[in-house]
Design goal:
By secondary structure, the protein is of the alpha+beta class. The protein has two domains: 60 residues, no CATH class; 169 residues, no CATH class. Helices cover 51% and strands 12% of the residues. It contains nine helices and seven strands; from the N terminus they run βαββββααββαααααα. The strands form two sheets. Strands 1, 2, 3, 4 and 5 form a five-stranded antiparallel β-sheet that branches. β4 and β5 form a beta hairpin. α2 runs antiparallel to α9 and α3 packs across α7. The radius of gyration is 23 Å and the shape is globular. The termini are close together.
Length: 259
């Protein structure tokens, strides 16, 4: 991806103009002032926000300083992906900075800060991008889905909650998702999936950091950060998400800003 994604909210749809006009005339709307506050949300009702271009999306109420704030609910998968992208756009520049300055004779304070900066953004990228993939994988399993494990002696049944909590990522991808969705990204795009598998391995290195077997060191982790294929992995993650949701789920923002 060359720029940031189009930000969307949970359950976001664009209303046909005639329906939007009907909603606006229904008297059900609560006008929100410039500070995005309302006096009260009726009990048992879920707030939705509408925009001038007829988009509507789910929101939630939040009490702040004795006021009810209505906050749109971002899609968490897109939040994690966007956060990974914000780290991604810093990685190559920071990598170049530290490799160029490593030729200096002394390790300066600036150099130390840049080293920490590089390994911070790479770790954040990996964790956040893999979290987006995990969240999407769980979403693709419908609430009433039952997964069956059949062997010679018995058949085991697992609910969505049990799958989410107890199944390893590999089993969800290899067995559960094809059964739950009728689609198999790993089978149809093995090269792209290899990047996601490498992302998982790197994420596990970070989340369960261990000393190297032969010494009290973590150099394997930093070498991985310096050689990891960030662009290919970001593109593969986007394709993975769009494959299971919709072609336009993760898309570049059409705005004029190029970051």
């Amino acid at each position: 991806m060359k720029k940031h994604i189009l930000k969307k909210f949970l359950h976001q749809i664009t209303l046909p103009e005639e329906i939007a006009n009907t909603v606006n005339k229904s008297g059900l709307n609560i006008l929100i002032n410039g500070k995005l506050t309302v006096q009260k949300i009726p009990k048992g009702m879920t707030p939705y926000l509408t925009t001038e271009d007829n988009k509507i999306f789910k929101a939630f109420s939040f009490q702040y300083k004795n006021q009810t704030k209505i906050i749109p609910e971002p899609d968490p998968i897109l939040v994690y992906f966007h956060a990974a992208y914000l780290n991604y756009i810093q990685i190559e520049e920071k990598k170049q900075e530290i490799l160029d300055k490593l030729s200096e004779h002394k390790l300066s304070e600036v150099m130390i800060n840049e080293l920490y900066g590089f390994f911070s953004v790479t770790s954040s990228f990996v964790i956040l991008l893999f979290t987006a993939i995990e969240a999407l994988t769980n979403r693709c399993i419908k609430k009433d889905f039952i997964y069956k494990k059949i062997n010679n002696r018995r058949t085991e049944l697992y609910t969505k909650t049990q799958i989410e909590k107890y199944f390893p990522f590999d089993e969800k991808i290899d067995e559960v998702l094809p059964d739950a969705t009728g689609k198999n990204f790993k089978k149809h795009f093995p090269m792209k999936y290899s990047h996601i598998n490498n992302l998982k391995d790197f994420r596990d290195m970070i989340a369960h950091t261990k000393e190297a077997d032969d010494d009290s060191t973590y150099d394997y982790l930093y070498k991985k950060a310096l050689t990891f294929l960030y662009t290919d992995t970001l593109d593969a993650a986007k394709d993975f998400c769009n494959y299971y949701v919709a072609d336009d789920f993760i898309v570049e923002c059409p705005c004029s800003q190029q970051w």
